[in-house]
Structures are given as C-alpha cells and as structure tokens.
Write a structure and sequence with these properties.
about 425 residues; alpha+beta; six-stranded antiparallel sheet; 19 strands
Length: about 425
C-alpha cells in the first residue's frame, strides 16, 4: 500500500465554508473553477497536510481533520489553531493542538495529543513526551512515541517508516517556473507550498545524510562525486528511470550538473550542504546548453521529472501541463503512473487522461471551487458532484461522443 490522502474536512480555514468535506480518489483528483475561487489555496492546504507541516498557518485560526492511509495502517488527524486572549511569551496569538489516531494493520489502535508548548500525551497511558511542535511533523512524532521500539510489530515498523518516507518533499508544483527557480537557487518571493530552495548535505565518509527537495539518485551521485578539496560537486544526471527519460525528452545525450555550496541557513543538518544546481544539457559534439537558455516548456518538464523522482506516491500541481507539447503531456502521465494526483487545471488536454470507471469515480475525481453567488469576494465553496450529476456525467462520458471537458461543461462543472 502506498500513501493516500482519503478525506479532508474543514471546520475553519480562511473563507472556506465551514463543514466542507472532500473525499479523494486513489488516482486523479482534478480541481476546477474560475480564477479566485481557491484552487491554489486548496492545493496549498493539501500540500501542507501531505508534508505534515502546517507552520505557514501558525498566525491564523483554522480547524481541519484528515484521513490518510499508508504502509502499515491508517491515520485520522485533527489540527486546531485557536486564538488566545493574550499573546504568549513568544508573541504568538494562537495555540495549536494536534490529535492523531492511528489504526495499524496488526489491529493495534492508539491516540496521541500534541498540545502547544506542553508535553505530548499518549491517550490512555500514563506517558508524557517532551513538547513537540503540533504544526510540524506531528504524525511522525505521534507514531514514533506510541510504541516501544523493542516491542513493535513488523506492521508498526512499516507504519512508522511510511509516515516518515519522503513526506517533506510533497510541495506544490506552481503554474510557472518558481519551483524550477528553487532548484537552481534563484532568489524569489515566497510562494505557497513551493520550496524556497533545495539541496543535499554530505559527509565525506558517509555520503549524503539529508536532502531537501532533491531526488535520492541526485544525493547518491553527489556522494560519489564529492571531493572535500573542491568547492563544488559535479556529476551527471541519471541513476533514476524518470531522470534518465527526462534527459532523452529534452533532446540531450546527457545533462551535467554542478552543485554549489549553500548558506548555513539552508537544509543542512550536518556536514556540508550543496544546492543551487546548474544544469548543462549536452547536445551534439561538445555543445552544452545552460538551463538559463532552456525554454519555458523545457524548464517545466524538468521540474515535473525532478518532482516525480522526489515523490513516489503523490503529485500536487497547479496547471501541470502548462507549456508542454501533447507528446510531453503523454510522457508525464506515463511517468506519474500510479501516484495520487491533486491538480488544478484550465487546459482540457490532461482531462482526457483522467481514469473514470464508475459514477463513484466521478464523485471523487473532481472538486468544484466557486464563491457565494453575487459576491466577488464571498465565501469559498468547495464541493464534489452529487450522485445524480455523477451518474449523468458517467453515462455521457462512457458513450465516447463528447470529450471529458465538454461533458464537464454540460454538467456545469467547468
């Protein structure tokens, strides 16, 4: 079993209608709606949930609950951030609490509460753990402290590993090149759930010890090419089927990468941190094309491939196919494979690749974003097709007469 976000319920979050509840598909989840109806806001929230990092919301009130399954079990997580009457000693005006309920494949159930600034509690046991941040890696700390490692079952160990694996890389691919800019180290204004930059930390005798939005294959190549006497790390991109295919799709025989040192405030935990990647696509005899000279579409394709190499289970993207030729769109869909996808889009080309096998698939595959009628800046309403609309959609789509985007328009979903 791979990681899947199953359900998201919003009791309070910005201008979203309280009580909004969304149930997600195993595969494609398409967010539709006019500009300004909250499509990117929803993707931002989904990305934060998947990364187990809600710190960007520390200064605003919210209350959400989500369900997710992952290798070894399932979780229900409730996070609340409530305004205080007076700011605390650190000047914070809100108090956060996260409640994590786990159900493991071996039948074990447990519950943990992580309050702001107080010891973490294992419900039903006289156990208190040192204070943890309820908005950062809460579910990771919850399962890590609910079971004695010497008594953990194989199911529990798989469960713990599944929670930790790759969660930090589940950012949002933006609709432009901000994500690409983060990879190459361009300083730019912060964007919601888009990484500020990426990098790998290296130790001479160990290899790579941590990475932030960098594929494992890149970490391995950097570890092999690391020379502590040299100021940069140079290697060829590859060692991963998606990265290898990316090189071919870009029309290059190889891509040489140069990683430069990062400042101390980067993703470094120990050792020396490198990032600010430079890419040189080799074309023909001795001809190299620097990434600054790549087209918008080439930078977008590279970003998607880099992201997929970081994330084996999930994709969160705004306008995924923006700037891509249809052949590249088909290639991206193939590389996405069985991942769970959350995507906002206006381009109808990608819709034809959304698998629909039943009316229930229709209900889960589409999220319609709109605002209150007659209000330009009213409440955001996020909903999914009801049973009647889903049945009509499925019948119309299964005849094959109309493409998916035309059926969506007919049913008022797009």
């Amino acid at each position: 079993m791979t990681t899947r976000l199953r359900r998201l319920r919003i009791e309070r979050f910005r201008d979203v209608t309280p009580g909004t509840e969304l149930h997600f598909s195993e595969r494609w989840n398409v967010v539709l709606g006019r500009n300004g109806t909250g499509k990117t806001t929803l993707l931002h929230l989904i990305s934060m949930v998947l990364r187990d990092d809600l710190r960007a919301l520390r200064g605003e009130p919210f209350a959400i609950t989500y369900d997710m399954t992952l290798p070894g079990g399932a979780l229900t997580v409730t996070v609340e951030n409530v305004a205080q009457a007076e700011p605390d000693m650190r000047g914070r005006g809100f108090v956060a609490t996260t409640r994590v309920m786990g159900r493991e494949d071996d039948g074990t159930s447990w519950e943990a509460v992580i309050p702001e600034g107080r010891p973490m509690q294992i419900v039903g046991e006289a156990v208190e753990i040192a204070p943890q941040d309820p908005l950062a890696a809460a579910r990771f700390f919850a399962i890590g402290n609910t079971r004695n490692p010497t008594q953990s079952s194989p199911s529990s160990m798989v469960f713990s590993g599944g929670i930790a694996r790759d969660s930090a890389d589940r950012f949002r691919i933006d609709e432009g090149v901000a994500t690409f800019d983060a990879i190459v180290g361009v300083q730019a204004p912060a964007r919601a759930s888009v990484p500020r930059r990426c990098g790998v930390s290296l130790l001479e005798e160990i290899g790579y010890i941590s990475r932030t939005f960098a594929p494992p294959a890149v970490g391995n190549a950097m570890a092999q090419g690391f020379d502590p006497q040299r100021p940069t790390v140079e290697f060829e991109l590859g060692g991963d089927p998606i990265l290898d295919r990316c090189v071919r799709l870009l029309g290059a025989s190889a891509i040489t990468v140069n990683a430069k040192p990062l400042d101390s405030d980067g993703p470094q935990v120990a050792g020396r941190a490198f990032g600010r990647f430079e890419f040189y696509a080799r074309r023909g005899e001795g001809r190299f094309v620097h990434h600054d000279r790549w087209s918008f579409g080439q930078q977008r394709l590279f970003t998607i491939c880099w992201y997929l190499s970081c994330n084996p289970d999930v994709v969160v993207a705004d306008e995924l196919v923006n700037g891509l030729h249809w052949e590249w769109i088909e290639a991206c869909v193939e590389m996405i494979g069985a991942r769970q996808v959350f995507v906002a889009l206006q381009n109808p080309l990608l819709l034809e690749h959304v698998g629909i096998a039943s009316p229930e698939d229709v209900r889960r595959a589409f999220v319609l974003c709109r605002t209150s009628e007659g209000e330009e800046t009213g409440a955001m309403i996020w909903s999914q097709p009801d049973e009647r609309v889903a049945e009509r959609f499925y019948r119309a789509w299964s005849t094959g007469i109309q493409p998916v985007h035309e059926v969506l328009k007919t049913e008022g979903l797009w």
